[in-house]
Amino acid sequence: MDCLGGGNPRSRSPAVLPTLPEGPAIVKGCEPMCGIVAATCGRDVIPILISGLKALEYRGYDSAGIAVLNGGDQLARIRAAGKVRELENLYENAPIAGFTGIAHTRWATHGVPNTVNAHPHVSDDRVAVVHNGIIENHAELREELKAHGYRFDSDTDTEVIAHLVHRSMDEGADLLHAVIDTTRRLHGAYAIAVMSRDAPGHVVGARRGSPLVAGIGEGENFLGSDVQALIRETSHFSYLEEGDIAEITCKGIRIYTADGTPVERAVRKSELTADAVERGEYKHYMLKEIFEQPRAIADTLEGRIAGERVLPNIFGVDSDELLSRVRTVQIVACGTSFHAGLVARYWLEGIAGIPCSVEVASEYRYRRAVVPDGTLFLAVSQSGETADTLAALRDGRNRGYIGSLAICNVPESSLVRESDLVLMTRAGPEIGVASTKAFTTQLAALALLVLELARLNGIADAKYARLVVELATLPRVVGEVLALEPTIAKLAERFVSKHHALFLGRGVHYPVALEGALKLKEISYIHAEAYPAGELKHGPLALVDADMPVIAVAPNNQLLEKLKSNLEEVRARGGELFVFADTDVPMTQSDGRGAIIKVASGGNLIAPAVFTVPLQMLAYHVAVLRGTDVDQPRNLAKSVTVEQFLSKTRRAVPPLPLAGEGWGEGNLASPSRASKKLPSPALRAASPAQRERRHRYSTTSSGASTV
Q1: What is the pLDDT of residues 309-333, one digit of tens each?
Q2: Tens digits of per-residue pLDDT, 420-456?
């Protein structure tokens, strides 16, 4: 069946945009977030869309919806509040079908999570749109459209997009040109997919600030927020770049820049399999991902360590030249990645002898930071699409850093494409909202960077070799710690009725305590806080009583004796103390309260990653016993790909001015120095594939590709 149907889209300037090719596809070359899936093919797209939404539900699960063109030019829509299963139940009771469709799972930003605010949004039963992001100027656009007679049914910012496309088509544009016109009016971040009954068989997608990928099949094509949504249908993908607009039919895909100029994007083959995004034998994705950590860490280290050394240029072409000039490091990240950065600060200063600052991206981007000469900007992000981290990276181009390095898990993410150097974590898909293997693989990647900088900074050969060998043992040691799961599952029973918990750590293990507290609060809804153990007397000790469990991390390092003194303070106040102690630590439980769990840390360098794993398991089993939604905790989504604004009555602080061109070598007080480019053309010209030759995607062609 010809999925293009019988409709002929109107066109203002048919000569500007070539006709889509016949035959196979030809393509060359949050804060909250939501999930988008779109498909056009010669079969019913509903199963494709529902399957894709289930794979994307980690991105948001407040509501879900589908719109399809059925009967050629009739637009049908179903929406439901709640998770995708509610939408699926609705579909089973009142089936719809179509050969072209768009779908969405929502994490609410504008308007409460209900059916009325669920996507897709439509205009005059003629145009339907799904959207991930935030339109900053939606209020002005709404008033303008109301003045032109448009009625709004929802409280969302997305509905303005549907009406703008509709108005442009009323003025004579075809669907593609209408989307191009509309995107020029939008301020903010978005990924959208749009279809119209005037253009059967066509879906137009666009992105700015939020990810969107085109999936290429045989006689069918797709759009999605990420590869996971489409991997059951195709293994060939083209990643849209910032400002790109894509038009898909069952016969092909064409990609354009924001002004409508045709552009070629590489087609890549994903090695991801459908099994990788399935739970398999595990009850929850989080548990699966906890147990995947030995393999994930091994993948992070594979091909990057040989014998007793870190291999050269693993961070990108000519990376040694840039890293040799590093005199200080600025780490910017959010959430769990921020905790990984805090661990790296201890390593960088204690092992490499390099000063380091770590800051939450949402704070960093709104202040004028002083950048010392020779500072490397280091961004850490699982998804590579975290809005605040990306904004900080872009703003940093004008602050005088010598270059940028990204630690990331997604090869074709914006963060990877826009950074000078890259080290992929190779963690694989992480579906559970609470991060587990992403954190430990980030620590492994950061350890590689620390060791390389330490080598360039003159670390003693024997110490360097010992640390590299220790790092290589991390996958095995984590695998051994997983054997503690039955013990920790039993321990979790003592937390079920608790409402608060306090985590303690000292030195490099204070960030581990922060991460442990974050995991517990995220998925069990127990209020949990973390403090440096030495700060007990400065406030937290007032909270300690028999009803507040205290969880401490006790590695065998130079701070052990001080930590023991802090723990005695807890015992003296009747606190119930649970200590995860190194097997070499002589510590016993004498009062019958609490527990001591012995953990073989494997050494001081890898201990932070090792001690994190039992804290992950504790949070998981407490959440299971409390009956919470482990993989999709309330009010949270997996990644933050658009900025959260303050309120309708308050204006957000405007972001600092974006950079001019490239990364300068000076600082804000020296415009002439800040305008200088990196001296290594090869470094700046390196593609993501050159920067990371062993990541999980391989380019199928450097030019036009027929798939």
Answers
A1: 998 889 987 898 999 999 999 999 9
A2: 999 999 898 888 889 999 999 999 999 999 999 999 9
Sign of the alpha-carbon torsion through 409, 411, 412, 418: positive
Q: What tokens appear for 540 in the block?
A: 């937290």
560: tokens are 């052990």
3-state secondary structure of 483: helix
pTM of the model: 0.68
587 φ, ψ (degrees, to nearest 5): -140, 130
Q: Which of 205, 229, 278 is nearest to 57 (CA)?
A: 229
- Catalytic residue list contains 408: no
Binning the chain into helix, strand and coil, the percentages to the nearest 5 are 35, 20, 45
Q: Helix/strand/coil (H, E, C) string of 534-573?
A: HHHHHCHHHHCCCCCEEEEEECCCCCHHHHHHHHHHHHHC
Using alpha carbons only, give the angle 239, 408, 313 rounded to the nearest 5 degrees. 100
Which are the contacts of 269, defined by CB distance < 8 A and separation ≥ 6?
A: 235, 236, 237, 697, 698, 700
Per-residue buried b or exposed e for 474-492, using 16+ beta carbons within 10 Å of the residue's own CB: bbebbbebbebbeebbebb
- Residue for token digits 């090719």? 21
Tens digit of each residue's pLDDT (9 = 90 or more) over 634-657: 877 665 544 443 333 223 333 333
Q: What are the DSSP calls for 191-203, one per residue? A: EEEEEETTSTT-E
Structure-token match 């992000």, residue found: 381
Catalytic: 648?
A: no
Distances (CA, A) of 321 to 135, 366, 452: 41, 31, 12
The catalytically annotated residue of 34, 334, 356, 408 is 34
Helix, strand, or coil (residue 462): helix
d(CA 376, CA 393) in angstroms, rounded, equals 11
Which is the catalytic residue, given 83, 251, 288, 638? 638
**Burial level of 470, CB count in 10 A (0-12/13-18/19+)?**
middle
pLDDT in tens, 58-116: 676 678 999 999 876 789 999 998 888 899 999 999 999 999 999 998 766 666 778 89
Strand partners, 268: 237, 699
